[in-house]
Amino acid sequence: xxxxDFPPPWRVDEAIAQPSDDEPIEVDFLxxxxxxxxxxxxIRLGQLAPDTSVAVLEKGKRPGAHLLSGAVMRPEPLRAxxxxxxxxxxxxxxxxxxxxxxxxxxxxxxxxxxxxHGNVVVSLSQLGRWLAEKAESGGAMLLPETAAVSLxxxxxxxxxxRTGDKGRGRDGERLGRFEPGSDVRARVTLLCEGTAGHLTAxxxxxxxxxxxxxxxxxxxxxxxxxxxxxxxRVIHTLGWPLRAGARYREFGGSFVYPMGDDMVALGMVVGLxxxxxxxxxxxxxxxxxxxxLVRGLLEGGERVGWGAKTIPEGGFVALxxxxxxxxxxxxxxxxxxxxVPALKGIHYAVESGRLAAEAAAGGDxxxxxxxxxxxxxxxxxxxxxxxxxxxxxxxxxxxxxxxxATVSRGAVPFGDRATEPDADQELFxxxxxxxxxxxxxxxxxxxxxxxFLSGNRTRDDQPNHIRLQTEVPRTLAEMWVRLCPAQVYxxxxxxxxxGGGGAPADRxxxxxxxxxxxxxxxxxxxxxxxxxxxxxxxxxxxxx
Amino acid sequence: MKxxxxxxxxxxxxxxxxxxxxxxxxxxxxxxxxxxxxxxxGAAEAAGGLVYAADDERLAAPLPAPxxxxxxxxxxxxGFDAVLFAQSVLAADVAAGLAARLDAGLxxxxxxxxxxxxxxxxxxxxxxxxxxxxxxxxxAPALAxxxxxxxxxxxxxxxxxxxxxxxxxEAHSLLAELVExxxxxxxxxxxxxxxxxxVAGGRGLGGPxxxxxxxxxxxxxxxxxxxxxxxxDAGWYPYATQxxxxxxxxxxxxxxxxxxxxxxxHKVGMQGSGVVVAINKDPHAPIFEYADLxxxxxxxxxxxxxxxxxxxRT
Amino acid sequence: xxIAVCVKxxxxxxxxxxxxxxxxxxxxxxxxxxxxxxxxxxxxxxxxKETSGDAEVVVVSMGPERAIEAVRKTLAMGADRAxxxxxxxxxxxxxxxxxxxxxxALEREQADxxxxxxxxxxxxxxxxxxxxxxxxxxxxxxxxxxxxxxxxAVTGKRQTEFGYERVRAPLPxxxxxxxxxxxxRYPSLKGIMGAKNKPQERIAAADIGGATTPRTTVLALxxxxxxxxxxxxxxxxxxxxxxxxxxxxxxxxxx
Lengths: 544, 314, 255
Prior knowledge:
Strand content of chain B: 25-35%
Radius of gyration of chain B: 22 Å
Radius of gyration of chain C: 22 Å
CATH architecture of the largest domain in chain B: 3-Layer(aba) Sandwich
Structural class of chain C: alpha/beta
Helix content of chain B: 25-40%
CATH topology of chain C: Rossmann fold
Oligomer: heterotrimer
CATH class of chain C: Alpha Beta
Strand content of chain C: 25-35%
Number of domains of chain B: 2
Number of strands of chain C: 13
Largest sheet of chain B: 7 strands, parallel
CATH superfamily of chain C: HUPs
Distance between the termini of chain B: 41 Å
Strand order of the largest sheet of chain C: 9-8-7-10-6-1-4-5-11
CATH topology of the largest domain in chain B: Rossmann fold
Shape of chain C: globular
CATH class of the largest domain in chain B: Alpha Beta
Structural class of chain B: alpha/beta
Number of helices of chain B: 8
């Protein structure tokens, strides 16, 4: 049984609409998403075309509120665009890669694709705040708490977006403070929505831009800790708590990065093609912290931040076949510009934003595609294009294959391998959950405590923004319950007295608490669909 | 130390909260009360001890500005070191107005007042009761309002000694007029923000029909009914009663959590409560980590029995 | 008619309100947002303006320069102008310093109606309006859950512990509104974009008569006293449990 057997009540083209507002807002350039791609674009437009109007829509409460990454970033593209003084935690002091078992940590040579010499540790959320100020001082108008819910297409051309309504109740009814969304029209719309972008998906479908292989994702769950002793290296781990066998398809690993002398960021990243319904990335991270290597780093410390977000992992083969359409440019994570083996995406986002801005300012959108293909972004992604797919055969075969592919500059025998949609993976169940820590409130935590730490204060009486079938086989429902790091989904048991009892015998009910949602996007990969809730909802990240 | 205590009155008697502050003041030094209103000499007498009475028709309405005038004059004439108030809607306005009139510092929401090294130090919780602050004054007199019900009245009051307070009202103090007063005959109990006792129900109740257990216990205890996010989301109880991060923040003297697991989103809405009693069938429920009394058992049996016992006792 | 609304930019809850160990004051170095309570006051001002047909809404705030972002939200909601009193001399202001600074700014404005939100989200229960009204020597009505504005007077319905009252005051008057009075509107996108072009004036302490000295101090911070031993009842019958709870309540004197 696969999640894709129970598709959500959602059509990708729901987000395509005709302009309808009699009094639209008009700007020259519209950027959707105040992340590194969108803000780089806004900064560049401010440099190239200072007399034009640039608006940046951001669904989070403020720029940075929805930004989360590890992160170790290659700094040159950002420096070239915006100067030296961006916030960072300094150069990578040293690095180590470990293969973990339940009790040991075996140091292994750093794979060539993962070398971080010359790179810097950053908080993407802080970087976003800084980039937003830069963009504003260059003349861009930042519009936070504003979700873009449809792409306005008129006569085959993208003419802008429609923003979301505010002040609707649980059943979609208008509450006292209802404020309808507006049409925002622009000559050029730059979609920089990040992972699982809502309008990006609609645009790719509508204009027939999908790549040769479907996109796949990983879920990253991250914590920021204040620590008693400084960490002096960037650490990556492979192996435990993930299982190597091919049947599990558990691809991923963990990271621990120093943030200055008194904080560290750590996270667990797992491909969403996993098959065990009991897998919970949130809880794997809790388990990871009990490993002697990690526990020692956190001793005497305190958890001060938490968040979760998906990462597109399809790489080169999943890129769209074109990155522009009439009136439209596509940038960043939204179109999968992520180098999975190197764990890098921020500098690609910045570069794609810059190139898109240059094409938009010059009035020639097709030139963006050309520029992207001639840039290091293309070259890098092409060189690692088969690595992710290699791990479909489990950890050992995958590592071997990936290792060989390094030498061959990405090529593998019999041609590039396709990715398979995460939702097509057959599910089974083990007793994986029995090993998850209970949550002691000091080292390990439960999901609701984590959601609290994300700063999520979404109002409870909003319409449900998650599209999902809510009467499904138990295994699928349980997979969703474990999948979501924010405890949005629960089984509605008959004993609860509120709905579970109505489901047919072989199905269970799924209860959704949308206000917990931190908009990581994982559900979209595995049988449901995340649509943008009211602007301003969701997490309020500041350290991630 | 000479302290003046503002004695608020209602229905002909000084309020219990004000009498509590008066008792505290008497323990700290030479204390006098002041009652302001019309026909208030009886209440002033009953309060016991030295009490100034400002009794005038113009003071009948419970409006703050004329009280500022009376207290300011009394402070200037008698030289008080401190003026204390029991927190209330009226007292807050009077205290702040008086602070401005006298250019005197005001610390509010105090839960204690002590003398340390000759100076007064007020103690107050801050940031949803997560930290305690020692507050001081760099002026005289020192003005302080206390959280309602912080102190108990003296068990026996000294003989009454009522003196007239001079009444000199400023022109601007009489501009506001009371046009209408409506008493809450039966407002259905206190609102959850004001309640001294709250009984809250969570998903462990099993269904909306079981909220009656919570309501009956609340009625027996003279308190208000609250609900968790989960049950409000499920439509079992109205959003106005939701306690928690995305609902209301409450700090009653007693909080009884019935069938509530106690996730942090709920905790932050009630962590300032005085005494917390939790009833839940799951021994691992997070609420037991911060309840003063945790009862693991079946709420459907325990709550009705508790209600009965409370009723028979009161 | 000129309506002034006094608002405060407070540390945003999500950023984690904390007290700075060194200064013993609320750490205001992080994100600032418009206090939720004040948004009700802004909303009420906008409603009065809409019903009167011809009024100006001026937002007055005291705070660091960074507070301008939070105050801009009021302009996005529909206020016409903003005045920020911003001066290093006012850092660490207490109730009276703040009230006097606001009163100074309000005197410059000569507003007919001055609105406040009921509580400061970071100060828990300060009654700034009463002190400001005293400095302005005008009447004040607090806890207002319904406001009627006539030609030369306002009548506020206010909730008290015992029921409600209606209090009337001639203009100019100071009114503090409770959060029951209205549901603040979301700023429209056009409102947000137009906010930047509305006049925002920054004035210094010197412009309003100088800064005064605080009359209260924070001496020390401490952790809350421990809650004490928590007790557990796990075995026994429901009747036993109920009895034990009753005795506990009696012992704690909350019965």
